[in-house]
Structures are given as C-alpha cells and as structure tokens.
Amino acid sequence: MAENKTKETTASVAEFLNSVPDETKRTDSFKLVQIMEDQTGLKAKMWGPAIVGFGSGHYKYASGREGDMPLVAFSPRKAEISLYLMQEPVEKEKLLASFGKYKAGKGCIYIKKLQDVDEGVLREMITATVSYVKSKYGAVS
After folding, report:
1. Above 70 in pLDDT, residue 69?
2. Hey, where are the domains in the chain?
3. What does the DSSP assignment read for 62-131?
4. For residue 38, is pLDDT > 80?
5. Which residues pair with 4 in a beta bridge?
6. Which residue has the higher pLDDT, 43 or 1?
7. Contact 122, 92 (CB under 8 A)
8. What confidence tier does 1 reach under pLDDT thresholds 50, 70, 90?
9. Separation of alpha carbons 141 and 131, rounded Å
10. Is the CB of residue 54 less than 8 Å from the CB of residue 73?
11. What whole-number distance in Å separates Cα of residue 98 and Cα of residue 115?
C-alpha cells in the first residue's frame, strides 16, 4: 500500500510563510495561523513542504489505507489559498452559504484573500472541523 506523502515535519512555519512571494497571501497566511491557533489551541506545524497544519489525527479507511493528517490546515498556493477543513456535509453547506467568495474542491476550499470571506464564519468552520474529525476518527492531538 502506498505511503502517505504529506507528513508532519520539523521545518519552520515562519520561514515557509516568509518565502510566499505574494505580499497579500503572505500577510493572510500569518493571519490564518493566528486564527487557526486561536480556534484549535494548537501550534502551527509544517506538513510536507507547503501545508501548514494544526494538530494531528489518525484515519483509517474501509479500504485499509490509513495515515495521519492535520486536524485543520491551509496552504498558500500560487493562485489561491487552500483551506483544508473537513466537516459534516450539511453543516459545511450551511456555513459556506454565508462564508463569502470561495471555490469548493473535493477536499478543500479555495479563497483568493481573507478579505473576501467572513472571519466569524471561518472560525465556526474551524471549530466544526475539529469536532467532526474527533467524532469521526477518535483521539487526536
């Protein structure tokens, strides 16, 4: 079975974020660290070369594939910021209705800048994600 490529590393979150070329994305990324740390009570850590994650949970699918993942995470990509927020689908749709400007992918939400979204709703989404992941996968750290 293939090994999960995205693992927690010891790389510096600040160094990574300071290397983001776009000033708005860089500023938004530092703000996201603050928001996610506030909502989760967990410190930011690098997951792979480009994902900033908070906490860790172990998942196991019916197929037998298993691994570790951050509870919540984001990545400042070239075109937009990817938010990794796993939620119960009905709750997710309810929150997204008042979130602001975004695009939804299969496993993430894409935003251009924090100014485009409602910070209060983002905070609710982060809290909902932590609750959902804990209920779905059990113990997390």
Report:
1. yes
2. 13-137
3. TTS-EEEE-SEEEEE-SSSEEEE----HHHHHHHHTTTBS-EE-SS-EEES-GGGB-HHHHHHHHHHHHH
4. yes
5. none
6. 43
7. no
8. very low
9. 13
10. yes
11. 14
How would DSSP label each residue in 21-68? Answer: SSHHHHHHHHHHHHHHHHHH---EEEETTTEEEES-EEEE-TTS-EEE
**Two structure tokens written together for 60:** 């196991």
Residues 6+ apart with CB under 8 A from 67: 3, 4, 58, 59
C-alpha span between 40 and 132 (Å, rounded): 13
What is the CATH number assigned to the segment(s) 13-137?
3.90.1150.200
Token code pair at residue 7: 């693992």
pLDDT band at 7 (very low <50, low <70, confident <90, very high): confident
Task: Return the residue matching tokens 């196991």.
Answer: 60
Beta carbons within 8 Å of 37's beta carbon, 6+ residues apart: 43, 44, 54
Strand, helix or coil for residue 19: coil
- Cα dihedral sign, 63-88-133-4: positive
